[in-house]
Input
Amino acid sequence: MIDAISSNRLEGTHVRPRASLPPGPAPLTRLGVTVTEKRDYDASDIARWIESSREDVQFFCDTSLFDNRTDARIWDALLGCNGCLVIIPPVYLELAPWLASHPAHPAARAVAERNPAIQFLTYEELSAWKVNVLTYYANLLGIRKHLVRAIVWGFEQTFGRQPDEAELAHLKQELHESAGPRAYLLARKGADTPIGPNFFTDELLVCLAALTAITTGRETVVLTKDEDVQEQFYKLQWLLDTHYRGMLLADLYAIEPLGFLIHALPEGIPHMDEMFLGVDNVLIERSRHLLDDVLPTMWTPVPISCSIIGTQFSHMGFVAERGMERLLRIKGTTGGLNTDRLRGRNCHIWLAPLDVPKRLRGCAAIAVDVRVPVRTEPVALPMLDVQQAILTQETVPRVVEYYPELVIARDGWLD
Output
């Protein structure tokens, strides 16, 4: 949530101040992200915040919110306004056992009676390009959940057998060191979770919330008790920010390619040929200032956030903007590219984890991607996007040698 942001903080527009979210996060700046520390909270403060915001804000609720420990005042606030509470299909599916065992709970009754306070989002109401965007970003975010399976698959391809207990422990330790603890935690949990219609619930929750916010301009909050959801929210905002600036940089390059200092892709870079295809690929110099200068002068902010309201409270907010809808449309119509102006080439503003020479690390790539298809969907994930979705810090080296076929697509979660 934005806390009393003025027009001089967000240039080009004005945001009406709203009741401060307890315990009051710092104001956000354009495309900025902030998170509060975990702290104790009073449920009455959360309820008042929801009540003061719900006419303008949509609250996407995670399955974890539906239990007997969620304070009744929070439910009263969420159920007090038509369409305020949003439930997505995999959350509704996960709720079935709890609903059956708690029929008298106010939230369970509201779901069973189709209370108008609840908006039951369906995939049928999404256009084809939105389905493609959802497929693209949910699979990108979910790639970390496949990492343990991926390294086991790679071991089997190399040695013709499954790893024993000691070998598996060693593989997991290497993964932890290379991908980092955040990615490893998701990988470990993913390995213990059966692949099925609920495998990507967290990813779909944050993606649908962001897609809805950006395409409607309506502020959106994800409510959860699960820190994994906030982790996926954080990764999503980084991807959206990076891809958005990539689209805008591609616009400039398409208009005046000779206005950039251009370099050939250097030879001898490990794994470069696994990222890009063909010979019509270049690096273009771009400064940190340019990545800000490409942003439109006039813009409309769209606050998107994720709040944990479990035993403690934590809030993460991101100021997206309405102009990102064009990025999402391009993603949906091209099946995963940041631009449709470069004759099939993509624009990547960030080159990590490719080990390019230091003098070229401030470059963007204009290149044809090697892409991983998502089953029969018209979506394919650029390999550099996959690497960057996995990484939790930009300096981490290549982390996965083998990529099994992605298995979560329309037949996995969209039917």
Remarks:
- Residues 90 and 198 are 6 Å apart (CA to CA).
- The radius of gyration is 22 Å.
- The chain has a mean pLDDT of 86.
